[in-house]
Amino acid sequence: MVSNKDISMKEVKERTGLSSRQIRYYDQVNLIFPDRSEGNQRLFSEADISRLKKIKKLINKGYNVETIKKKLKIPETVKNKKNIRNKYHNKADRLKSLYPVSDRSFLVKMLNKSKEEKNE
After folding, report:
1. How many CB atoms lie within 10 A of CB 20?
2. pLDDT tens column, 51-104
3. Cis ω before 34 (30° cut-off from 0)
4. 3-class secondary structure for the chain?
5. Distance from C-alpha of 67 to C-alpha of 53, rounded to nearest angstrom
6. Integer Cα distance of 42 and 92 in angstroms
7. Which long-range contacts (CB under 8 A, 24 or more apart) does 109-113 make?
8. Domain count, the chain
9. Does the model's pTM come out above 0.70?
10. CATH of the domain at 52
11. Where does residue 59 rank: exposed (0-12), middle (13-18), buried (19+ CB within 10 A)?
12. Is the model's pLDDT at 114 over the cut of 60?
């Protein structure tokens, strides 16, 4: 199943009732997995909107982010992308600068993941 990710942040905010800050945070903590436009803007699919609505319900019920991560499965499309990206994980460890990068949010996540793994 192919899901087109062509819905803007503005429309997602209107349809979910979440703020930009909340949506960016859920992206940062890997609860959602939007694509990026060439201008580096987040792009969402209908499945992403549905997932955000589920996250919102769980937050309102008092669940924390870690519990929500355990409750919601990572979408197959994201798992496939992660397998591809894991091939380049070692390269991310060696980077000294974040500029220029086409997918900065991915790079930041990879660097944070690398730091967490080193601390374990």
Report:
1. 12
2. 999 999 999 999 999 999 888 887 766 655 554 444 444 444 555 555 556 667
3. no
4. CCCCCCECHHHHHHHHCCCHHHHHHHHHCCCCCCEECCCCCEEECHHHHHHHHHHHHHHHCCCCHHHHHHHCCCCHHHHHHHHHHHCCHHHHHHCCCCCCCCCHHHHHHHHHHHHHHHHC
5. 16
6. 21
7. 109/28, 109/30, 110/85, 113/89
8. 1
9. no
10. 1.10.1660.10
11. middle
12. yes
pLDDT at 47 over 70: yes
Residue reference for tokens 């994980």: 89
d(CA 106, CA 103): 6
59 within some domain: yes
The torsion angle over the Cα atoms of residues 40, 34, 68 and 79, rounded to 10 degrees, is -120
CA–CA separation, 3 and 80 (whole Å): 14
Assigned domain for 81 exists: no
Residue 44 lies in a domain: yes
Position 39 in a domain: yes
